[in-house]
Amino acid sequence: MIKYVLILMSSALPAQASISFACNELDRVSLSAEGSMRPVYEGRALNFTWDESGFSGDGVFYHDAYWINPSDDGGFRAFAENSDRSDLFRFENGILMHTAIVKYGRAPSIQSQVFECAEVTEF
User: Fold this and answer.
1) Three-state DSSP state, 9
2) What is the number of H-type helices and E-type strands within the chain?
3) Is 2 exposed, middle or buried (0-12, 13-18, 19+ CB in 10 A)?
4) Which end of the chain has the least Cβ crowding within 10 Å, N or C?
5) Which residues neighbour 47 within 8 Å (Cβ) at sequence distance 6 or greater?
6) What does pTM read for this prediction?
7) Cα–Cα distance between 115 and 94 in angstroms, integer?
């Protein structure tokens, strides 16, 4: 049983202990019952690190804990939720896709971003 638990835990980690990425936004859109919006200034930068404790970064990683399902190609699918928002991530082939259902503000909205990312050794 202990061997099985250790295998499950190790399969939830990236191949390396910590992997950092520098990303540039390719596209972003927000949708709500009131309509849709695209930002005036696209192309924002995003930096994040994936390690055994989850994700840390700026811009789209707002939760303390994530459900992470690593993929065979070194990417992942991830999900996190609290009372204000639900976040869904997919990372493959250097592309990070993120969608959030955000429940604060004037009206609930769906916010989606696509980023192109490259692995970096430091920010």
Assistant:
1) helix
2) 1, 9
3) exposed
4) N
5) 20, 21, 22, 23, 57, 58, 123
6) 0.80
7) 8
Mean pLDDT confidence for 1-25: 61
Residue type, 13: L
CA nearest 108: which of 85, 91, 81? 85
- The sign of the dihedral angle between the CA atoms of 121, 60, 27, 40 is negative
pLDDT at 44 over 80: yes
Q: Are 30 and 37 in contact, with CB atoms under 8 Å apart? A: yes
pLDDT digits (tens, 9 = 90+) for 61-110: 888 889 999 999 889 999 999 989 999 999 999 999 999 999 877 778 99
Q: DSSP character for 4?
A: H
> What is the DSSP-derived secondary structure letter of residue 66?
-
**Which residue type is seen at 83?**
S
**Tokens 């969608």 correspond to what residue?**
99
**DSSP codes, 31-79:** EETTEEE--SS---EEEEEEETTEEEESSS---S--EEEE-TTS-EEEE
SS3 56: strand
Closest CA to 103 of 81, 82, 84: 84
